[in-house]
Structure formats: C-alpha cells, structure tokens
Automatic annotation (TrEMBL):
UniProt cross-references to Pfam families, sorted A to Z: GFO_IDH_MocA, GFO_IDH_MocA_C3
Protein species of origin: Fibrella rubiginis
Domain GFO/IDH/MocA-like oxidoreductase, chain residue ranges per copy: 247-367
Domain Gfo/Idh/MocA-like oxidoreductase N-terminal: 115-238
Protein name per UniProt: Gfo/Idh/MocA family oxidoreductase
GO molecular function annotation: nucleotide binding
Region (Disordered): 42-86
Highest taxon of source: Bacteria
C-alpha cells in the first residue's frame, strides 16, 4: 500500500460512515474536488457521487415523521457498551449537507494511560502542552520538574498533580523511584536537552525531547547512545509530522499528485524581543532564528519529500548594533539540493513580522500551506492547470491538536514497543544539516552534507542517504 492510500485510509477511517470510497477520493482529488472531499471527510457524510455534493434527499427534512428519523438513528442501534476504544454513538440531528460533529473521543481510562513528567514550566509547557494533555487519549501528566517551586506547586494544584511528584533540577534523578512516570518530556532551553535526556535515560525513563534536539551533532549522538544503552525510547517533538494538513501534503507529494515536485519554497519568520531571554544567548540557544524556527523549514521539507539534502548554500546576517543579535543570528536564507534534483529555498528571520508558509511546486500544480507551522488555523490551497483554466481550491480538514497527537504517538510507541516516527536520529540529521548551513554562511561556499554514519556493532558505517525516510520510524497508525 502506498502512502497516499494510507492517508486516505486514515481519512476514511473517520469516514467509514461517509461511503466515499478510496477510489472516488483519489479520482476526486486528481480532478480537483479536494475541498468537497475534505469537507465530506470532516463531516463524515457521503458526497453521494464521486466528488459531488451530497444529495439533499439524504438529509432528514423538517416535518418528516420523527419515527423515521429515530428508526435510522445510530443511537437506537445496539452499541458496544464495554469496549472503551469504540466511540459512543449519538443520535444524528444535523442535515447531511452540514458539517457534522463527532465522533466522540475514545480516551483510555486514566489508570491505563502513559504517565509523563514535564521538565521546564515555560511558555510551551504551560500555554500549549499542559492544556493539550486534556485532549490526549493515552497520556497523562503525573509529575513536574522546575527550578521555581512556587510556580510548580501552583501548576500542580491546577492540574491535580501530587506535591510528592514535584521535583527540582537537583532532585530530578529521583524520578527513577517514581513508577508512575514512564516518559520524561523535556521542555527546557536547547542547551539543557542533552543533559536532561541522558540523566532521564539513566533514571530508566523514555524521553520525549523538544526541538531542536540539542546544540551540536555530538550532543545528539550522546543522547541517542544513552537511550540505546538504557533500552529507552527517544523521540524528538516534531509536531508538524503528526499534523493532518502536512500529512496530506506529504502524501500528495509522495504520490506525485501534480506530477514531480521540482522545488519547495518555505518561510518561517517572526519578530522576537527581549535580548535577556535565553533565545538570544548562544550558549543556551545554540543559534538564533535557524535552530528555533528555521528548523521547521528544514525538517518539514525532509518530511514531505522523504529525501535527505546532499548540499546546502546559505547567507546569514544580523542588523549591526541590534542588542538581540550580539550572539545569535537574525536571519538565515539557504538553499538545499536533493538527490532527485529538487532544490529548495528557505528563509528564517527573527526581525520581521510573522509569516509561516510553504509552497510545493510540481510539474502540473502547486500545494501551499499558509500558515504551515502555526499551532492551529492551518490553511491549504492547491492550484493546477485544467485545459485553458487554472483551478484553485481550498482544502479544509478537521482541526487536530498537534501537541496531543504528537504526545499520544509517543505513548502508543511505549505501549506497543515501537520506534517513534521521529526518533533521535531524525533530530541528529537536522543538526548535521544546520551545521552545514552555518558553515556555508561562514565560508560563502556550498557545503556538502556529510553522509550519515551510524554505529553498527562497535564500528561506524555509512548510511545511504538516497533511501527515503532514512531516519524515521514506521508511519504513525491511525492514532
Ligand atoms: P521558555 O523560556 O518559555 O521556557 C523555558 C523554561 O526553562 C522556563 O520555565 C525556564 O524557567 C526554564 N529554565 C531552566 N533553566 C533555565 C536557564 N538556565 N535559562 C533559562 N530558562 C531556564 O521557553 P519555551 O518557549 O517554552 O521553549 C522551551 C523548549 O521548547 C525549547 O527547546 C524550544 O525550542 C521548544 N519549543 C518548541 C515549540 C514547538 O512548537 N514544538 C514551541 C516553542 C518552544
């Protein structure tokens, strides 16, 4: 089965009730009725014919005898009342032409979920991750680690976490005595990722680590080695790779939906402030815009194509005298060359107003996400030639909490003993490429990305970088 099939399967999983066959989805997608199909997938309702609008006759109309509606209602059908993995079915009340709600979530009972310790209670942890756990089905927060006890106790009370499960950075290693904690989620400044991953693995815990994985390829390798030695899983939190729009673009690229992809243009820029923040300290952040937000351009292109760049060429600059950029760069603009011939243009910047988008340009059309890398509200457009006209379509998918999807993938890997889709090797490869980008900007010359090497039985062996998805685990199932 190829990847677009898998994607369609995933869509049709929520769409089993919809009666849109995979064949009709693909045909519709090819002729440009993506928006209709995507809407059908999100509503879970049949389009009635291939790619066309749902027949109105299917909708329950006002004035129909209520017994007819009730008789057809799923609520009246026998339900599996014991299996919590089956959604609770509710009686339909909206017309088939309308966007439907549901299915109801299927959370695991709390005592069966994988327990997490969150390390570092800053913006990402408190604004995004802690709330996202409420949408997780397989994961729960059971412990906190922070250097600020007052803040930590407040958060512990807010989320019902026991005071006994609150640790400082000094007592972090005592997590090994807390059997409730299976995974440590590291949400610290970049320079601290390596140390806390290695100590966490030694404490016998699996590790979910925020991006960028670390500040150097050597640190990344040490993290991988420590987790391997402790027989623990290591995943890098690349949320974009667990997000449905990017997944759909990936499947369209891999299946040559609009012919061969020739080039991809990506931009991830924002205006940052507060020179005292760790993001502007080279020792803590490792770099400026590139490892923080430019990484999304780099990692997403690798994810969409499955290919690994063989060469990069970069420019870097910072506004002279700007206190933010005494130690780290303001902007990097770079190109990457891939084995298939794809050449990409990427831009990251810390000093201009927010833009987070990409466009994949293929022989017969383009696919664009704008925004592409935001936490929510992603928007997708496609354009392709149709005889003398150009068709432009908007594709709309149901919203998914990217953080919950990513965290539940880690839990699924722990529960089923699988390699994460974005393991440590994926983060290490990004780090190698970023090091090549910085080298190119410094020397003013194109820089070859070295072939990856990985340890095999005490030796090092080259890994062929022309293999697709060289550094990823198996594709996430429909989680
Ligand atoms: P933040 O500054 O808001 O939080 C960092 C936390 O680390 C704070 O609670 C701070 O007190 C603590 N900390 C411990 N030691 C510190 C030290 N020596 N200096 C400074 N802070 C220290 O940062 P954030 O935005 O939450 O980012 C945390 C990590 O998450 C980073 O690696 C970042 O790249 C990553 N991140 C990922 C995403 C994503 O979408 N996946 C988004 C934002 C941040």
């Amino acid at each position: 089965m190829n990847s677009i099939d898998e994607w369609v399967d995933q869509l049709l999983h929520t769409n089993e009730r919809a009666g849109v066959s995979r064949k009709s989805f693909l045909r519709a997608a090819a002729v440009g009725t993506m928006s209709t199909i995507a809407a059908a997938c999100s509503t879970g309702k049949s389009t009635g014919k291939k790619g066309g609008p749902a027949p109105v006759s299917e909708a329950p109309t006002a004035g129909q005898p209520s017994s007819e509606t009730v008789a057809a209602s799923p609520a009246m059908k026998p339900q599996n009342t014991t299996n919590p993995e089956q959604p609770v079915k509710l009686e339909q009340w909206k017309a088939a032409t309308e966007r439907q709600s549901g299915p109801t979530p299927t959370p695991m009972p709390p005592d069966k979920r994988v327990g997490y310790a969150i390390v570092g209670l800053g913006h990402l942890a408190l604004e995004e991750l802690m709330p996202a756990f409420a949408q997780c089905k397989k994961s729960k927060v059971v412990a906190l680690v922070s250097g600020n006890p007052e803040k930590m106790l407040k958060v512990a009370r807010q989320y019902g976490i026991s005071e006994k499960s609150c640790y400082s950075y000094a007592t972090y290693d005592r997590l090994k005595d807390n059997p409730e904690v299976q995974v440590i989620y590291i949400v610290l400044p970049n320079s601290m990722h390596a140390e806390y991953t290695i100590r966490g693995a030694k404490a016998g815990k699996h590790i979910l680590c925020e991006k960028p994985m670390a500040n150097s390829a050597a640190e990344c390798q040490a993290m991988i080695d420590a987790c391997r030695k402790a027989n623990r899983k290591l995943m890098v939190a690349y949320r974009i790779q667990y997000e449905p729009y990017n997944r759909l673009v990936r499947d369209m690229v891999r299946s040559n939906q609009f012919g061969k992809t020739k080039t991809i243009e990506t931009v991830n820029v924002q205006n940052s402030d507060n020179p005292a923040h760790w993001r502007f300290k080279k020792k803590l952040a490792g770099g400026g815009a590139l490892p923080d937000i430019g990484l999304y351009c780099l990692n997403t292109i690798r994810y969409l194509t499955g290919e690994e760049p063989t060469e990069v060429f970069a420019y870097q600059s910072s506004t002279p005298g700007d206190p933010r950029f005494k130690e780290v760069e303001e902007m990097v603009s770079w190109q990457m060359r891939f084995p298939s011939g794809i050449i990409t243009n990427c831009l990251t910047h810390y000093g201009v107003h927010e833009t987070r988008r990409y466009r994949v340009m293929a022989e017969r059309g383009w696919i664009g996400l704008d925004p592409a890398f935001s936490y929510s509200g992603l928007k997708m457009d496609v354009a392709f030639a149709e005889k003398k006209a150009e068709r432009r379509e908007n594709v709309s998918l149901p919203d998914v909490n990217q953080f919950a999807a990513e965290i539940d993938h880690m839990s699924e890997c722990v529960l089923t003993d699988r390699v994460p889709f974005t393991p440590g090797e994926e983060g290490l490869q990004d780090q190698r490429i970023m090091e090549a980008i910085y080298k190119s900007a410094k020397t003013g010359r194109p820089v070859k990305v070295p072939s990856a090497v990985k340890a095999t039985r005490g030796r090092t062996a080259s890994v062929a970088t022309n293999k697709l998805d060289q550094f990823r685990g198996p594709l996430p199932k429909n989680e």
